[in-house]
């Protein structure tokens, strides 16, 4: 009797317009990936985002009060963030070509 093997991968089939396949192929090529790898990664990433959006955070009334208390504290500037926000954007800087 042959031993049963648990399946580890499952096929997914889709019908897509030619323009969609061309876009996917172009993006996959730019990433150096196969179409299958690119689509799998994109689909899993999108699925993870949806699942994470649905996460429920539970806490006790005391924990919630503490949380709200922290949110209600006066803000204090973070020197590194102040400096970062004060920098010009890369497209606003004139660069001298190196010689």
UniProtKB/TrEMBL annotation:
Listed name of the protein: CopG family transcriptional regulator
Pfam families reported for this sequence: TacA1
Family recorded in the similarity comment: Belongs to the TacA antitoxin family.
Entry's Gene Ontology molecular function annotations: DNA binding
Keyword set, alphabetical order: DNA-binding, Repressor, Toxin-antitoxin system, Transcription, Transcription regulation
Entry's Gene Ontology BP terms: regulation of DNA-templated transcription
Superkingdom classification of source: Bacteria
Species name: Rhizobium altiplani
Gene3D superfamilies in the cross-refs: Single helix bin
């Amino acid at each position: 009797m042959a031993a049963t093997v648990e399946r580890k991968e499952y096929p997914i089939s889709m019908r897509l317009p030619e323009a969609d396949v061309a876009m996917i192929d172009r993006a996959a090529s730019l990433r150096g990936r196969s179409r299958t790898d690119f689509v799998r990664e994109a689909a899993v990433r999108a699925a993870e985002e949806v699942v994470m959006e649905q996460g429920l955070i539970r806490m006790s009334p005391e924990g919630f009060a503490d949380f709200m208390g922290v949110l209600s504290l006066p803000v204090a500037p973070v020197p590194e963030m102040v400096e970062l926000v004060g920098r010009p954007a890369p497209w606003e800087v004139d660069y001298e070509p190196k010689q």
